[in-house]
């Protein structure tokens, strides 16, 4: 690990590179013990740089320098200076060729950045700053060069040798070795470089572009996984066709390749022409993958493919502009998934992620703008704010401009900036110039952090038929940004006005442009007071403070023409009921369930007309982690008991309805991945979870669950049983967990599900179970997926992690410290559950702060973990939600 000082980098300090790179020729000599990298780099002075010294700094970490030469003349150690972070070459000429050789050790690379080995195969991960762990280079996104890559390795252990671009040469060498040469004709930054070498097989197909070019498609996996790639290939072809039809964007190389690896810090990586994927987002069969797994694979395959233009052909100038590629591409993959499946369900799922995770981030010590102002470690800024809130910013532009003008803006963006490294402002300028819409105020979404909060007031004049709506916006203080200094956002608010029959009154417009701290909107000549359906389709990432009573929410649940708002009304009603019951428990009162809420749930269960997936989503109660953020002082125990009470009471009162819906939607026919089939499974399995809501459910319901488990023909139905029964203190729980393990112990991805089910159980012995599972053959501390599935999942288990004895805090701190020296990126992400420590009661605050300080005091702590922990410790305020 690097011993460099953890210094803060500021966006305001950006300077253009002093040198540019025209070409880079790489030669990798791979062996079982090490890798020697020869790099020949063609430099030229940057005419835009004001620096005249000619000094060149190249990034490099953990490298063994073998030799270095300039224009063919080898340099002595007196002619350069090695530092912990790279090498300094003083007084370079305006143009020169640098030759250098380094040795690296992929087998010892536990950080999984740069070049490392996974299951014996070589692969790279260079985003954000991994290329500097391969060779000395200007490892920054605004330095774009044409890469030519030669790879040499044993033909036996590495029959497949891959890199970016087009294959231009290959051949055999002496001693059973062989080589390939790949040439990428498109300039790219170093973070998009990729290399894969190993014993892999491929699933092959092709795609004809709109201009008639035939593209070879290849998905490389280990031999045992070849029969699980079909869905990924189908998803890739759908993505290519969709991008042509929706945005007119055609693939530009002769071949598109995907490689699946088991050891990967991220979900996937969009390296030009050679995507490296976490195997979780490639491999699927009905026996091993759930409906959500299939949808996840389709979305991530699309996401990485769409990066070919929004990220690769046009990339970001610096890492502060990360959302320029990630937020934009998330928006594109969300639209793709919406078109491929159910738009309403996709939107609900996207908003659930935003509310459960991004809103919490915005309200805590790690809050930052979509375009951050500073960072210590860029790895810590691959966040839900950059990705998901960034996507919402793009979506708001789409809403404000309309689809046609937005497409014109995208076309202009590519025309202006193809082959360039640009900024968020460059994107907004292209959108504004093409559409003629002033987006200057809108750009505050990039620079201001926090979630805007809206206050709603309604006024009705029955004599004149005037309905007046007054809206006020504020944005809470966030680190480095006080509330009083924040300016009003430009917020698009999609809305509808419903009459007493549930019909839209159609006021002649459906989007309000809300630009001031407070504005008033009037609607005249209405025959009756309307019920307001606001923020339809979740048209902006804002919080609306409660203003509608439960009768209005129940009315919207039953009648709103906007499917998202029907679900949202159910969500808001459930939230109000659970928090009310939690307060009753805190006061020592016996809680009762609101009959209006029960009646609303019953209407969902008896609804024969609506989309079943939407009904299933409406029945899912808000998660405890989300509900916790709505409390002034978080009370994990009473919150858990309050939510559990609601589930148990609904089951008691509506048991017959839940059972009937389960029976009506049982389908033992062929597994189909259609919205209709997925909707039936979702609704059935949500009902099953209610039937098993208690610690000791009715035995007839347990037998029903056992029948679904043992007769199940797909992983969706089987996992649903395990998820429901994992919270029940009954003998059948252990019986099913053991049976599941014995059946699937040889499938690493299925075992990840098995680990998560046990780590997220609400039963009191969960922590002890997690500690035992860390010794289990199904777990490995070296594999990021395993760490996320067990340790990360336990950290998200709100009631068990926050047991008042503090044992959960101590456990997580131990794992963070153990992982910090092995894989700082993964260790850093495990710190998230600690970030809200100031929102809990005094006793828990003391316990959590003790563990945060314990981590912070570790000698040689990585920058990744240090930044997260110190920001959490030093936060001087914590805004209430």
From TrEMBL:
Residues 450-544 form the Peptidase M1 alanyl aminopeptidase Ig-like fold domain. Its EC number is 3.4.11.2. GO terms for molecular function: aminopeptidase activity. Keywords: Aminopeptidase, Hydrolase, Metal-binding, Metalloprotease, Protease, Zinc. It is an enzyme of class 3 (hydrolase). InterPro entries: Aminopeptidase_N-like_N, Aminopeptidase_N-like_N_sf, PepN_Ig-like_sf, Peptidase_M1, Peptidase_M1_dom, Peptidase_M1_pepN, Peptidase_M1_pepN_C, Peptidase_M1_pepN_C_sf. Residues 551-874 form the Peptidase M1 alanyl aminopeptidase C-terminal domain. Gene3D superfamilies: 2.60.40.1840, 3.30.2010.30, Neutral Protease Domain 2, Peptidase M1, alanyl aminopeptidase, C-terminal domain, tricorn interacting facor f3 domain. It catalyses: Release of an N-terminal amino acid, Xaa-|-Yaa- from a peptide, amide or arylamide. Xaa is preferably Ala, but may be most amino acids including Pro (slow action). When a terminal hydrophobic residue is followed by a prolyl residue, the two may be released as an intact Xaa-Pro dipeptide. Belongs to the peptidase M1 family. This is Aminopeptidase N. It comes from Desulfotalea psychrophila. The lineage of its organism: Bacteria, Pseudomonadati, Thermodesulfobacteriota, Desulfobulbia, Desulfobulbales. The gene is pepN.
């Amino acid at each position: 690990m690097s011993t460099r000082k953890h210094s803060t980098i500021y966006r305001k300090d950006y300077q253009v590179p002093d040198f540019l790179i025209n070409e880079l020729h790489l030669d990798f000599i791979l062996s079982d013990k090490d890798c020697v990298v020869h790099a020949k780099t063609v430099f030229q002075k940057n005419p835009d740089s004001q620096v005249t010294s000619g000094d060149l700094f190249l990034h490099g970490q953990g490298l063994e320098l073998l030799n270095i030469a300039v224009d063919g003349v080898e340099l002595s150690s007196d002619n350069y200076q090695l530092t912990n972070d790279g090498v300094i070459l003083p007084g370079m000429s305006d143009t020169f060729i640098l030759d250098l050789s380094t040795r690296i050790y992929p087998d010892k690379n536990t950080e999984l950045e740069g070049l490392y080995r996974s299951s014996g195969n070589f692969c790279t991960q260079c985003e954000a700053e991994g290329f500097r762990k391969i060779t000395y280079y200007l490892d920054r996104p605004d330095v774009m060069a044409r890469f030519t890559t030669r790879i040499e390795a044993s033909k036996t252990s590495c029959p497949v040798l891959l890199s970016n671009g087009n294959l231009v040469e290959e051949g055999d060498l002496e001693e059973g070795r062989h080589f390939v040469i790949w040439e990428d004709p498109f300039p790219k930054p170093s973070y998009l470089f990729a290399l894969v070498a190993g014993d892999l097989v491929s699933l092959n197909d092709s795609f004809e572009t709109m201009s008639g070019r035939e593209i070879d498609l290849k998905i490389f996996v280990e031999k045992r996984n070849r029969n699980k790639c079909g869905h990924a290939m189908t998803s890739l072809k759908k993505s290519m066709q969709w991008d042509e039809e929706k945005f007119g964007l055609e693939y530009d190389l002769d071949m598109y390749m995907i490689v699946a690896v088991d050891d990967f810090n991220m979900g996937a990586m969009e390296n030009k022409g050679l995507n490296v994927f976490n195997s979780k987002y490639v491999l699927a069969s009905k026996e091993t993958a759930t409906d959500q797994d299939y949808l996840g694979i389709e979305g991530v395959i699309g996401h990485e493919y769409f990066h070919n233009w929004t990220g690769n052909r046009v990339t970001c100038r610096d890492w502060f502009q990360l959302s320029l590629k990630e937020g934009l591409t998330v928006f594109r993959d969300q639209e793709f998934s919406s078109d491929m499946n159910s738009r309403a369900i996709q939107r609900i799922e996207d908003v659930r992620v935003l509310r459960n995770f991004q809103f919490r981030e915005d309200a805590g010590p790690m809050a930052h703008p979509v375009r951050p102002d500073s960072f210590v470690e860029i790895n810590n800024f691959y966040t839900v704010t950059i990705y998901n809130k960034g996507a919402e910013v793009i979506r708001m532009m789409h809403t404000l401009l309309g689809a046609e003008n937005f497409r014109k803006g995208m076309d202009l963006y590519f025309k202006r900036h193809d082959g360039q490294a640009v900024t968020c402002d460059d994107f907004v300028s292209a959108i504004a110039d093409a559409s003629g819409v002033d987006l200057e105020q809108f750009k505050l979404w990039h620079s201001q952090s926090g979630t805007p909060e809206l206050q709603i007031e309604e006024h009705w004049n029955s004599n004149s038929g005037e309905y007046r709506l007054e809206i006020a916006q504020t944005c809470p203080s966030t680190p480095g940004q006080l509330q009083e200094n924040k300016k009003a956002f430009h917020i698009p608010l999609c809305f509808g006005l419903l009459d007493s029959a549930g019909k839209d009154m159609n006021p002649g417009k459906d989007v309000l442009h809300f630009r001031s701290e407070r504005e008033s909107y009037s609607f005249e000549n209405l025959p009756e007071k309307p019920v307001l359906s606001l923020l339809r389709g979740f048209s902006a990432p804002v919080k609306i403070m409660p203003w509608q009573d439960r009768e209005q929410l129940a009315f919207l649940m039953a009648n709103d023409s906007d499917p998202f708002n029907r679900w949202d009304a159910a969500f808001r009603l459930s939230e109000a009921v659970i928090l009310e019951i939690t307060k009753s428990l805190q006061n020592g009162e016996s809680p009762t369930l609101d009959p209006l809420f029960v009646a609303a749930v019953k209407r969902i269960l008896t609804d024969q007309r609506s989309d079943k997936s939407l009904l299933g989503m409406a029945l899912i109660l808000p998660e405890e982690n989300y509900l916790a953020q709505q409390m002034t002082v978080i009370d994990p125990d009473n919150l858990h008991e309050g939510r559990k009470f609601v589930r148990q009471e609904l089951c008691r009162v509506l048991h017959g309805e839940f059972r009937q819906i389960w029976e009506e939607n049982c389908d033992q026919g062929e597994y189909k991945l259609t919205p209709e089939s997925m909707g039936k499974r979702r609704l059935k399995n949500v009902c099953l979870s209610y039937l098993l809501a208690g610690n000791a459910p009715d035995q007839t319901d347990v037998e029903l669950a056992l029948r679904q488990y043992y007769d199940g023909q797909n992983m969706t139905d089987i996992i649903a049983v395990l998820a429901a029964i994992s919270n029940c203190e009954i003998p059948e729980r252990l019986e099913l967990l053991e049976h599941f393990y014995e059946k699937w112990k040889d499938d690493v991805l299925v075992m990840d599900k098995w680990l998560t089910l046990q780590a997220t159980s609400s039963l009191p012995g969960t922590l002890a179970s997690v500690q035992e599972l860390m010794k289990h053959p199904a777990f490995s501390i070296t594999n990021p997926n395993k760490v996320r599935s067990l340790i990360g999942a336990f950290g998200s288990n709100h009631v068990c992690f926050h047991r008042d004895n503090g044992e959960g805090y101590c456990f997580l701190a131990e794992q963070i410290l153990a992982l910090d020296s092995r894989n700082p990126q993964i260790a850093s992400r495990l710190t998230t559950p600690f970030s809200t420590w100031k929102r809990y009661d005094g006793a828990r605050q003391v316990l959590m702060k003790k563990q945060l300080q314990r981590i912070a005091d570790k000698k040689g702590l990585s920058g990744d973990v240090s930044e997260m922990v110190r920001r959490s410790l030093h936060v001087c305020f914590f805004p209430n939600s």
